[in-house]
Amino acid sequence: MVMAKPSLLLESISIIFLLPWLSSSCPEYQKQALLQFKSSVLAINPSFDTLDSWNSSTSSCCLWDKVTCSSPSNSNSTSSVVIELHLSFLFAEFMPSNLLAPLFLIKSLRELDLSWNSINGQISALGLGNLSNLVHLDLSWNSINGQITALGLGNLSNLVHLDLHRNSINGQIPALGLGNLSNLVHLDLSGNSINGQIHTLKLGDLRNLVHLDLSSNWFNGSIPPQLFQLKYLQYLDLGYNSLEGGLSPKVGSLRDLRILDLTSNRLSGELPEEIGNLTKLQLLSLGSNKFSNGIPSSISYLRDLEQVDLGNNSLSMEIPSDIGNLSNLSFLILGTNKLTGGIPASMQKLNKLYLLDLEGNLLTGEIPFWLFAFKDLLRLYLGGNNLTWNNNMKIVPKCRLFELSLRSCGLQGEIPEWISTQANLSLLDLSMNQLHGPFPQWLAEFHVLSSLFISHNKLSGSLPTTLFRSSQVLILALSHNNFSGELPENIGDANLFILMLDRNNFSGPIPQSLSRNSNLAILDLSSNRLSGDIFPVFDSQVDLLYADFSSNQFSGEIPTTFPPKIKTLALGSNKFSGPLPSNLTKLRNLQRLELQDNNISGELPNSLLQISCLQVLILRNNSLQGSIPKTLSNLQNLRILDLSSNNLTGEIPIEFVNNLTGMIEAPPNRTSGVVLTLRFRTQNSITEFAVNELIVNWKKSKQGLSSHYINMYFLLDLSNNQLSREIPASLGALKALKMLNLSYNKLYGKIPTSLGDLQNVEGLDLSHNKLSGPIPTAFTKLQQLTTLDVSNNKLTGRIPIGGQMNTMVDPNFYANNSDLCGFQIHVPCLEDIPPAPKLQENDNKKEPWILLEAIKIGYPIGFLLTIGNIFLAGYFNPSPPSNSRRHCHHPHRLIKQRI
After folding, report:
1. CA–CA separation, 278 vs 237, rounded Å?
2. Could you give the CA distance from residue 828 to residue 171 in angstroms, rounded to a whole number?
3. How far, in Å, are 133, 336, 788 from residue 245 at the CA level?
4. What pLDDT sits at residue 152?
5. More exposed terminus of the chain, fewer Cβ within 10 Å: N or C?
């Protein structure tokens, strides 16, 4: 007997078992529902061909792609129903959510996957709620919006897997929570805008949860204790919310936990020692919170840990000495804390490390050489500590670093030669050291270097042209060095995003090639010796946002060859002359314009006042003439205006004040504004550095306003001009002002009482004018006042008492006025001097008689006493004999001789 081949036999058996399924057909209404869904898609996108197998000629929809049907209920049945639809990655363009309506008619669905589409709009609660048999629902990576309460999730009590992450769902969790979804094992609501408190989820009823991800929402409040009762939980991510309070020691009861991520909240307090009970933990991420005190020593029990992020907290004390026991660790971030002590020697055992971040702590001691022996190490951040570098140490690195930060590590001499072996470096930060010598040629030839920070050193010489031949270099920060010579002609050939060469000794003109760099966003060439009157002409499509050419030797007319997207333009402290150009208006997005310390002449043109985005305008110390235009009020966003030390005349126009809404009310949390602080993320760290401060006359001296906080300041300085007439009362409406300076003008009249309404003012200078009358008592309402100068006016009366006025006690700030008084200057007011005591009426009547009687009695008595004295003197003092000593002292004789 001939045996059948095994392969043929298996195929025959498979066909026999599959025959019932192949011959079965889905219900007609389900087939029509799917065809209607496809038709709706084709109506929007006729070229859509992903569902070509879906057609009416096929007898059963069970044979279509992406459709799964149930098996027939018995061997005699030919009917099946649709139970699974796998429809992810269908659309690359937005599709309205209402095209899903036909799918909601298929009540037999147990699994529905619509992830990674571009579905936009709200999902009908009646529609989704109709699918009560759903076990698996995935709507992630879409643009579904609307309230979470409108989704109808409460009807889906059979759900085991629910994934809604990366949508635009908002609102609070329903009042009943999700407690009726008691079968849930996987719940992912991350990447939405859901708010409220986590306890409303009724987590205590979701006892089967293994995976819980609520990250990147707006949840607030504390972590509910019910969460720590989920004994099957393996994945917990609550990161990027606004959670507060501490981390309960009960976290140690989640003994199956593999992932714990609480990054970027507002959690505080100590890290509990019970965290050491999570012995299955593979990822611990608690960064960007407010945790304090030490790292619990029990962390060394977590031998399965692969990634630890405790960075950007307030952790103190030393790094646990046995942290080297975490032998599986590949990712360790402890940066931006207050950790002290040295780098533990046990870290030598962490030979799987590919990232180590200790940046920005208070670590001390010598940087150990064995850090460079980790073969897998790719990223090393040690900067911003009190660590020291052994400049005599010979390094032969075994690692091939991608990123290295040795900022402020005490490096001396030339840039270390061993760094030349790290040809894969994309980021190198050697700033704030004591390096000197030239820019190394080998460093200029690094082919993948994208970010180079070597500012605040003593490097010298010219820049090699090869540095700008690479298209990889994006960030070049060489400021605060001694580089010199002309800028390379090919500087514009690089694809630089940030170029900072300020505070060096570069000279000569700006190369025209700079305008060819369409990627340039931040440019700082300030505080050099650059010169010339021709600037590069930037294309209108260039994304240049910040340009600082201040403190150089540029001359000629003010250049306007910048792209319209520019937001900050600093040209101060040069030799520019002539009037303000009318075509400044093309810089319509300008927010900060600095032209101080030049020789600009003419009047303030109306064209300047058409730049409606302007927030900071500095024209101090020029030769501007004419009056302040009334149309200056068009600059409604203006926060800082400095027109001091010019030759402006006329009055301060009332209209100038009325519409300056940017100075009238300060937003409570101002985050928008001039681009001044640069923050960018590298692979696993954030690098931040600030551009130049804004120099203003602040409280009687020139000071720099930090770029970190400049959006908090509101200043008006019109001092050192020839302004006249009265101070307009409308100035009192500028309640956001922190400094008002009207000194050294010719203003007269009374000080407006309304200035007492400047509730935020810290500095007020009205000195060297012709103001008269009293200092308004309303000044006692200025609770923020720290400096007041009203000297050299014609003010009279009492200096107000109360509030901050009681602290304004420097006499120099009141000097040279007509008739001021008060305890502040130790001059009593007339009304404070007590009157002389008055005699009673009867005593006044007796006074003439007493005086006459005294004369009558006193005259003869005085005469008799005089005669008596003369007689007695002569009787008791006869003339001495002739042989008496000439030098003998005799006082009575002297008396006689006088008489």
Report:
1. 15
2. 65
3. 39, 21, 43
4. 87
5. N
**What residues does 459 pair with on adjacent strands?**
437
Residue 330 tokens, joined: 């590949």
Give the C-alpha separation, 617 to 858, whole Å: 85
pLDDT tens digits for 108-163? 999 999 999 999 999 988 889 999 999 999 999 999 999 998 888 989 999 999 99
| pLDDT for the residue 769 | 97
Pair 789, 743: CB distance under 8 Å = yes
Separation between Cα atoms, residue 690 and residue 681, nearest integer Å: 15
The C-alpha atoms of residue 136 and residue 151 are separated, in whole angstroms, by 15
Rounded to whole angstroms, the Cα distance separating 591 from 126 reads: 50
> How far apart are the C-alpha atoms of 382 and 683, rounded to whole Å?
15
Find out whether 697 and 721 touch, Cβ atoms under 8 Å: no
Question: For the chain, how many residues are written?
Answer: 899
Backbone torsion region of residue 410, taken as left when φ is above 0, otherwise alpha when ψ lies between -120 and 50, otherwise beta: left
Residue 717's beta-bridge partner residues?
642, 741
Q: Which two tokens stand for residue 66?
A: 């992406």
Q: Would you state the structure tokens that stand for residue 436, as one six-digit string?
A: 């000197």
Q: How far is 241 from 218, CA to CA, in rounded Å?
A: 5
The Cα 845–Cα 706 span in angstroms is 77
CA distance 795 to 814: 9
Task: Tell me the CA distances in angstroms from 104 to 46, 70, 612, one per residue in order.
Answer: 23, 18, 51
Any idea what DSSP says for residue 676?
Answer: -
Measure the CA–CA gap between 359 and 343, rounded to whole angstroms.
Answer: 12
Closest alpha carbon to 260 in 244, 284, 242, 239 = 284
Contact 393, 416 (CB under 8 A): no
Whether the CA torsion 224, 226, 231, 235 is positive or negative: it is negative
Strand 746-750 and strand 568-570: pairing?
Answer: unpaired
pLDDT at residue 667, rounded to an integer: 58
Separation of alpha carbons 133 and 126, rounded Å: 14
Provide the token pair at 870: 């003369």
Cβ atoms within 10 Å, residue 208: 16
Strand 739-741 relative to strand 763-765, pairing: parallel
DSSP-derived 3-state class of residue 403: strand
Residues in the chain with pLDDT < 70? 1-24, 73-78, 656-657, 666-691, 698-702, 704, 706-709, 836-899
Q: Is the dihedral of CA 5, 7, 13, 15 positive or negative?
A: negative
Rounded (5°) CA angle 538-541-542: 55
Strands 211-213 and 794-798: unpaired
d(CA 887, CA 798): 67
> Both tokens of residue 94?
């937005």
> In angstroms, what is the C-alpha Rg of the chain?
43
Q: What is the predicted pLDDT for the residue at 691?
A: 65
b/e burial code for range 1-37 (CB count within 10 A of at least 16 → b): eeeeeeeeeeeeeeeeeeebbeebbbbeebbebbbeb
Dist. CA 223–CA 236, nearest whole Å? 12
Rounded to whole angstroms, how far apart are CA atoms 750 and 818?
Answer: 13
451-465: pLDDT as tens digits: 999 999 999 999 999
CA separation for the pair 670, 709 (Å, rounded): 10
What distance in Å separates the CA atoms of residue 435 and residue 439, rounded to the nearest whole number?
A: 10
Of 582, 547, 539, 530, the closest CA to residue 564 belongs to 539
Task: Annotate 447-515 with DSSP letters as a single string.
Answer: SS--EEE--SSEEEEPPPGGGGS-S---EEE--SSEEEEEPPTTGGGS--SEEE--SSEEEEPPPGGGG
Q: Is the pTM of this model over 0.85?
A: no
**Per-residue DSSP letters for 699-712?**
TTEEEEEPTTTGGG
